[in-house]
Amino acid sequence: AQSVAQPEDQVNVAEGNPLTVKCTYSVSGNPYLFWYVQYPNRGLQFLLKYITGDNLVKGSYGFEAEFNKSQTSFHLKKPSALVSDSALYFCAVRVSYNTDKLIFGTGTRLQVFP
Amino acid sequence: DVKVTQSSRYLVKRTGEKVFLECVQDMDHENMFWYRQDPGLGLRLIYFSYDVKMKEKGDIPEGYSVSREKKERFSLILESASTNQTSMYLCASSFWLAGGRSTDTQYFGPGTRLTVL
User: Fold this and answer.
1) Which stretches in chain A have pLDDT values below 50?
2) Average pLDDT in the B76-84 region?
């Protein structure tokens, strides 16, 4: 069965420092991977996705993610964190190629300190 | 911009009540989804629908039912609310591109925080 794991409940980083939010996956076949963000009191927003092609995927708000097949990881990264990046981040994997059904991770709360 | 709206931001109900959560999207999307979000558990899919009057069970359908009579509206029904259904409920929608492949993006509503006393 398809699944994703987010090993950290919370990540703390100082403003201006690089940030990484980790995600590992378990899929049969080619993975379709996503990152979503939830700002306080708001619904989830799509950040970026990996379907095929370049292993480094660029998304909204300066975020990027690196797909690593050998390590079955899809970590979210940003070179310089902003206080406004503080939010709840979810990694997700699509169940199969012909459906939009997603399996979400448990979420990682990112706290950026000034 | 795609807009997904949910009928209430906050809702308080009593055990045993029948509860309706409504979701409306304005972009003619084929697919609609209901999730519940709980701390430490992430988002879990309750039901989804890929067309009017079509529905499929997600991972945690027990205690819930759904209705999709019109393309833009997807309702989640708690037949007899229980305290373990206290949660944040999120609705989402997406569409199929021509050829049957989706955009891969789900658009979410703001959520309904349901408390069952």
Assistant:
1) none
2) 96
